[in-house]
Here is the input.
Amino acid sequence: MDSFKIYSQSDVLSFVNQRDGETKLGEKIDLYGISDSDPSSPVAISTYGLAQSNAKFVLLGIPEDIGVRANYGIGGAKNAWNATLKAFLNIQSNSFLQGDEILLLGHFEIEEPTDERIETLREKTAVIDKLVAPIIEKIISAGKIPIVIGGGHNNAFPIISGVSKAFSTAINVVNVDAHTDLRNIAEGRHSGNGFSNAIEQGFLGQYRIFGLHQNYLNEKISQQIQSSENINAVFFEDILMDDRNTTQLWVDFTADLPNPCGLEIDLDSIENVLSSAVSPSGFKLNDIRTILLDNKKPFSYLHICEGSVALADGREDVTTGKTIAYLISDFIKALRPHTYPQL
Here is the structure.
């Protein structure tokens, strides 16, 4: 059955390479409170329980690629979470990032459908929506900032809806992505229509796409962007031709976006990072790191998705987890002095 696994100390330390004279993030990171002496004892995640932690950031994973496959994509995004944990929890705890700023909550355990038909995968994706949204709502209601590692970009929808419900208002989102993910909602749920569903249901106000590739924009969605007052995009091709650097373009594009505001990073926007839609053309990893390290905008959540260490077609890249770990740590380091007011 589908569930959420809350981590105990022993769960976390199983990822940590402990060494005399050094302290890793995994040895300092905060946990929700499962006892190692009785890890089977049922624990319900509550807003009150989350609020007891002094940590501002809550890290959790959605290791699934059902939504990707429901969008005719290549499976593999489900394996990024464990690889990310291994890399992230072994970062050195030091004055730049100590670890106690973060509560490591756990991950969703999602049962695979026995039927691989597209229709069944889309039905299951809708089930995942209902699992994810309430947890995100509780995290936001506790005054925390969720950092969600996917998984497919289908999970943008339940994240946005959970944040929106907690704030009791539509939120704004900026998405670093080669694609819009604004496909037809009548197709059923999948990784290609998370944002169109969020718009349709009133959870998403302004939607901005940074680095959209012209080659993968169909004419119908192009017309939708042009006719909408609430959807705006900067094409990657225009970024390539602009004299300004990527960071300045980013600041100009996002500066007037009102709070509450979320940040999405689809890893297919970064050159040669393994994903279902891996591309030889895209942002350099250090471009995105610079954007995050320079960030002063109080984003209410971060969602990093679509990455993989091993795709179903046999392609592999063991560095993906470390890539995501860099992005998480950069986001936290920059955002600590600039967090959005608690509820």
